[in-house]
Amino acid sequence: MNAPVVTRFAPSPTGFLHIGGARTALFNWLYARGRGGKFLLRIEDTDRARSTPEATEAILKGMAWLGLDHDGEIVSQFENAPRHAEVANELLAAGKAFKCFASQDEITAFREAAKAEGRSTLYRSPWRDADPASHPDAPYVIRIKAPLEGTTVIRDQVQGDVTIRNDQLDDMILLRSDGTPVYMLAVVVDDHDMGVTHVVRGDDHLNNAARQMMIYEAMGWDVPVWAHIPLIHGTDGKKLSKRHGALGAQEYQVMGYPAAGMRNYLARLGWSHGDDEFFTDAQAQEWFDLDGIRKSPAQFDLKKLENLCGQHIAQADDAALRREIEAYLEAAGLPALTAPQAEGLERAMYCLKDRAKTFPELLEKAAFVIAERPITPDEKAAKNLDTVSRGILSELTPQLQNASWNKETLEEVLNGFAAAHDTKFGKLAGPLRAALAGRAVTPSVFDMMLVLGRDETLARLTDAAA
Question: DSSP for 167-202?
């Protein structure tokens, strides 16, 4: 029986959750969730100078917004330092690592001489096979004994087999002279102790895999399945950076993109399932596999993101959409909706969510239901409220007083009223939009009347006529 799948996301808390990191987290989450496995979270906080609690909080918030829930407690790499040191000392005792007493000046001098002579600058410590009896009483680092001959093959699910000559691998430091573990050791020990079966991460870590495999093999541990995914580029083909726009996952929440649309788009960045563009979370979990990941970098395209977000808004459940919009307003530091406004917004969803690509676009269309009396028309709408229009509205209001409040009856009354005044309904629409919403561009007049209800509609028309 196959062991259960365990993936992990291991960000460094030195800033926000970058879009590239968000996609890596998503790929790990999809792979584990689609196989009934576990998705774990580890904070790689060993760089004490740059790691901050604020950055950890920003990463957790970004993941929460994207709906990427993790299993078990969050692991702190820094807190595991004693365990990492224990493994280094175990390798030392087994003769698979050694104490190196070379000073930084000696190593620098060796490299400079090698460079001048055109030799490899890969440092080979003279202490590798030294007799422990000759060890001085001086500070030392612990280095692993790299294989000297043959090759190391990284069997990668995305990149294919990558072969590295062992004479290219140095006797990597495991423990610094102050007893602190290096990142390479910490990652391997944590992944092993957490039971990680699949390491899915950026292809900038591909070369690290060969060096990390030395530790797995020296300890006799199972090497995980590797999957190194290409980085994300901007539409100009260059690595994604600030100049391409927002970079943090949470910035997209503040800009009003729905999380489901963002998940869908990030899943499609560098991975595909046939020609499917739009899909649900359930489909993504069922379909996602490592062999669908492309080798070449993906391009981040805001137009495609918006298009997918529009489709997700249109398909969303109205109550869930209302809750997500309320969370968006809070994240963006905008005024919260009152209970009646939020209820009105949910009632109006059916006529708002088509063709809105972001929450600000949807809220713009929802102005009529969020606004409170008296409605102040904007400049464009005000032009539709001249003396003649006001007279028409005051004549129309009593005719709506006793009408049945459904679309068919309202259409009948308004079209009949227009015909009686020898005009088309289109001529009435401008003043009605101005009266009901204070805007020139709105959902249909009938939809607004139905959402607002009889009393509010008549009150607004009366205000405008006056």
Answer: GG----EEE-TTSPBPHHHHHHHHHHHTT--EEEEE
Cβ neighbours around 273 below 10 Å, total: 16
User: Strands (DSSP E) along 44-130, which ranges?
Assistant: 75-76, 97-100
Q: Measured between alpha carbons, how far is 7 from 74 in angstroms, rounded to an integer?
A: 13
Q: Does 192 have pLDDT greater than 70? A: yes
Question: Cα(first)–Cα(last) distance of the chain, in Å?
Answer: 78
Residue 242 annotated to the active site? yes
On the CB side of 166, CA atoms within 13 Å amount to 11
Residue found by looking up tokens 């994240």 in the block: 331
Tell me which residue range forms the domain holding 90. Answer: 80-185
Tell me which of 147, 162, 185 is where a domain ends.
185
* Residue 155 backbone phi and psi in degrees, to 5: -90, 95
Quick check: is 110 in a domain? Answer: yes
Residue 433: give its domain's CATH number: 1.10.10.350
Structure tokens at 198: 């699949």
CA angle 432, 435, 436 (to 5 degrees): 85
Q: Is residue 417 part of a domain?
A: yes
* 26 in Cβ contact with 307 (< 8 Å): no
The residue type found at 158 is: V
Residue ranges of the alpha helices (H) in 332-376? 339-348, 359-365, 367-370
- Work out how many domains the chain is built from and give that number: 2
Q: Tell me the pLDDT tens digit for each residue of 414-427.
A: 999 999 988 888 88
DSSP class of residue 15?
A: S
Query: Considering the domain boundaries, does residue 125 fall inside one?
Result: yes
SS3 content of the chain, % helix, strand, coil (to 5): 50, 10, 35
CATH number of the domain that residue 121 is part of: 3.90.800.10
Residue 304 labeled ligand binder? no
Q: Which residues pair with 381 in a beta bridge?
A: none
Amino acid at 184: M
Q: Looking at residue 237, what is its pLDDT?
A: 82
* Domain assignment present for 374: no
Please identify which of the residues 242, 357, 383, 427 carries the catalytic annotation. Answer: 242
Dist. CA 229–CA 41, nearest whole Å: 18
What length is written for the chain?
466
pLDDT band at 245 (very low <50, low <70, confident <90, very high): low
Choosing from 163, 185, 207, the residue where a domain stops is 185
Report the share of the chain in percent with pLDDT over 90.
Answer: 88
Angle (deg, nearest 10), helices 318-331 and 339-348: 130
